[in-house]
Amino acid sequence: MGLAEWFVLALTILFLAYFAYATPIIMVGIWHYKKHGFGDDDPGDDWDPPNVSVLVPVKNEGRVVGRLLDALTRLDYPRENLEVIVVEDGSKDRTLDICREFSGRFSWIKVSHREASNGKGDALNFAFHQSSGEIIATFDADDVPEPQAIRKALRYFNRPEIGAVHGYHRTLNLRESIVSRLAAYETFLYRLANDGKYKLKLFVTFSGSNTFFRRSALEKAGLWDPNSLVEDAELAVRFAKANIATRLAPVESCQEMPARVGSLFRQRVRWSGGNVQTGFKHWDAWKFMPWLRAFDMEALMMSPIVAILALVAWVVLGFGIVRVGLPLGTLFPLLVVMTVLNLVYFGIMVVTVVSHAKSGVISYLGLILATYPYAILVSLANVVGLVSVALMGRKMWLKTEKTGFVDQPIMVPA
User: Fold this and answer.
1) What is the pTM of this model?
2) Phi-psi bin for 244: left (phi > 0), alpha (psi -120 to 50), beta?
3) Phi, psi of 253 (to 5 degrees)
4) 245-255, strands of its sheet edge to edge
5) Mutual angle of helices 178-199 and 328-354, in 10-degree steps
6) Tens digit of pLDDT for each residue in 303-348?
């Protein structure tokens, strides 16, 4: 066999292995969702209210930060046990003014202004050192947590070894654009996968917001890495390496999805580059955690590379179908594997989307078909992310634009 044939064989084996690895995870996630909904179904009892510090890093979030702060004032939690630490990092819009307006009205909301930004991880570390709570909660500027968020999360710290509890997100702007709708359903599938991973005792990453930490666990893990592009995922790896237990919980916060192609592209450039950075940084994870969990972590962090190879595989197959390059007979095993993968993916999307469609099922099916150009866009962003990280490293910082758009109360299914 020549080099091209060996490459096609390698792709075939890779995606066959990926199918065998990923399918049980998503199937377990779907089973658990249908039976119990999202998150762990074994909460503990309420406990005496500990002091809780909510950390909110913001920069140029004038369109959404007021909405978040208003939601935080509606949290059902004793004010004497609650503080909100807002770190405003040199915004050019009205973000600081809005934050100070809330701080003036609510003494437990504290605002720190910094002239220059060193990224979200650095802002979170700064806020942590200003805080005093036994439990640390984090929210992004576009979050809208449910009023019971803290009380629900605390019930999942019912064992002393639990170091973190992370909830899930609904989508605020499902109807804003086809991009936000596709991103929302991708997030829903990601949540299904996380539920499956949790039940199978694999690696589950933090989401970056709507996450709650025991202070002592954060100090043991070493806080957030200011040099990471995905500080949430990188912290989750260090929690796993330190064998600090975490739990998924049905704690809900609404959040915006990217609504424009450019915003989505920039977000995925950062995610893909940051994930691969994290995978290489923690190549030795197998020394500190069960080997299957370490493998799952590396598979997640290197998934942008897998997505790129999937795009390459379809390009090679496309050329083969029009009789350019390798003959279709040589490509047939790869074609079968990729077709089966897509049929499973398509089936999951149909069940997920159509089962929640109130009307216009045909339009929803059209939306499912639109996931294919969406996947191509994400794969291209992965390519740019890998190249950008290789050339610029930590200097690459792409902030996701927020619009402040809110649907009427129609959300991604929970």
Assistant:
1) 0.90
2) beta
3) -140, 135
4) 109-114, 82-89, 52-58, 135-138, 211-214, 162-171, 245-255, 144-145
5) 90
6) 999 999 999 999 999 998 888 888 888 899 999 999 988 888 777 7
